[in-house]
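so i finally got all the pieces together for this one. its two components total, 727 residues if u count the protein bits. some of the lines might not be protein, just check the labels. i wanna see the whole assembly predicted at once instead of chain by chain like last time, that was a mess tbh
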Amino acid sequence: MSDVIDRPMLEQELPARSRLRIIDCDIHPSLHARSDLNPFLSKRWQEHLKTFGDHLRTPYIGTTPYPRSSPLIARRDAWPPTGGPPGSDLDFMRKQHLDPLDIEFGLLQVLDMFIFSQQNLDFGAAIQRAVNEWQLAHWTSREPRLKAAILVGQDDAEAAVAEMERCAKIGQYVQINVSPRANEPLGRHRYWPIYACAQDLGLPLGIHVGGYGGHAPTGGGWPSYYAEEHQSNAHTMAATLTSLVLEGVPERFPRLKIVFIEGGFGWISSTMWRMDQHFERFRAEVPHLMRRPSEYVRQHFWFTTQPIDEPDEARHLRSLIEWVGVDRLLFSSDYPHWDFDDPRSAFRTPLTKAERQKIFNANARALYKL
Amino acid sequence: MAATRIDCDIHPAVGGTRTTLLPYLDDHWKEQVVSRAIDGLDLSSYPPNMPLSARPDWRPKNGKPGSDLAMVQRGAFDQLGASHAICNVLYGAQAVYDPYMAAAFCKAINDWIENEWLARDCRLRASIAIPLQAPDLAIEEIERRAGDNRFVSVLVLAQGESLLGRRHYWPVWQAAEKHRLPIAIHAGSQYRTAPSSVGWPSYRYEYYLAEAQAFQAQVLSLIYEGVFVKFPDLKVVLMESGVTWLPAFMWRANKTWRGVRVEVPWVDREPASIMRDHIRLTTQPFDNPPDAAGVADIIDMIGSDRMFLFSSDYPHWQFDGDDAIPPHLPPEIVSRMCADNPLKTFPRLSLEGGSHE
């Protein structure tokens, strides 16, 4: 077994054996500074940002209450030589990530500015709009391999729908993103206008781990350590999946496609088994479900692969992949974060050429119509 | 006598505070529960009429499922073939806010189970209900029962006031370790916080599913806070947690630990290895994969035959028929989980039965 943190990549390390081009479904671009957004914000919101700043359900203004294992959660080799935080320099991203790994398309996931969790909903909407414009101006218009997402605040569904419609008219965007840690579980009715609109627009709904919903990271309360909080991401995703399925979101919006991002995929099969195991007992409580829960998962949900599980035995990873289904998996690297998965070494189990093709490229190509 | 088969999780039911428990309360609390009508403390986690809460054939004509000793004896022993069974009472003493009320009710529950269950059937054992709301009172209750080997573990809920590894609980775990009592964490919630980071769910179904993640958080808390470093003889039993989430959970824990272990230098080996030594799980529900090959894979992935403890979860409706063993388990696992593993996990569980120290 190698360490979790893959060794830094060397520039000359070009992929030798394969012309399988990679679609990376989770790349994090970063602002140089918050003032980068000023061109996209009205005077009022520029002032607000400067004077009052974020209002989030978390104790600190400037950092997370669970200090990460590296500055800005980043790979230590990902700091651009030109200055600025990891992920902020397009040329360096090309040189370090897109070119050497032969990334055909990279899907941007902006985590800056706590977009989904702003308590002031009007400020949140202004920030969402600004970041959506910034993605086009600074990234996708300069680098056609990169694809933007429409980021919306799920807790103001009306504003979210307006922003989705505005961005969809522009085109360029390949999915709609909301946070799994919202005010309420994402399956609840208050969020359905967003799903109706996403279905109408024909854009997948992306749900990336993170956010400050105000609830403790676990059902047992607030943990003391980052090690615990980090793993709770998988719990968050399992709870989000059960909420969406049990509330009947795929039943009500049968053409909606939902992508879980950065949750990994180890937890999915047991979550499906558990849902199915108890379905008969609870069926009377959820009469709106016409099928077993796992059937909805296998038709309506996709999962990015990072952080990939690292069992000691290769055959165990193989079983895991088969249980979830090769068709449901989308490769992601999480560049430039510390728990980055390198496409050349992340899957420590034999995959057929056809399986590699699906996981690393074809599934995402079809889903996002790339 | 039939082969040893220890059912590690059955649920006798308290009829009510003003009825069942009244004889076991002191004068102050007798007066309180009557004059203030303090009753109906069945946990929100298990509404009695919900299908999961009791199998139809285990529902008595009158009263709550699990409230009638003769019926429990017929179900758990005659029908399901247990030779011994551990009673875990899920009445709501663990969830009240007043710490003195919690302590009085826990004491009453333990006195009731001793007098009306353990004393009447030498095949029964029990977990000690403790008022974890006040760790010092919880320790008092453990000490009160410590001389009676029929109490074989300490019962807490999977979702409480704070994660179980945290330091303010350590004196409780110290008392448990001293008396060779494993900590039995049972599904159920005090409803202090939402069952997951995404908030309060709509359905009981959803809530029940989320219990699995709460158990996982408790395991991580116990490991990362260093409880098993501090109390190396302590065992923790996850009761009604589901089982098949364990392999992927172990892998993710190992991977996360490799990445961030600088934060918790006292955790000096892989979390999965600590789990294999200290964590045990009851086998109902198992949350099976659909086929035998899947079950074989799960067993292989867990990498230990010591972690499983047989349970029926009587009278909860986890399965139909007379066989509480989850399908497709290999015979060597079944044999270990029915006898060897429970005997190792609950060292006070003397098969001679009912003896006092």
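Chain B has one domain: 6-345.
The two ends of chain B are 25 Å apart (CA to CA).
anyway lmk what u think
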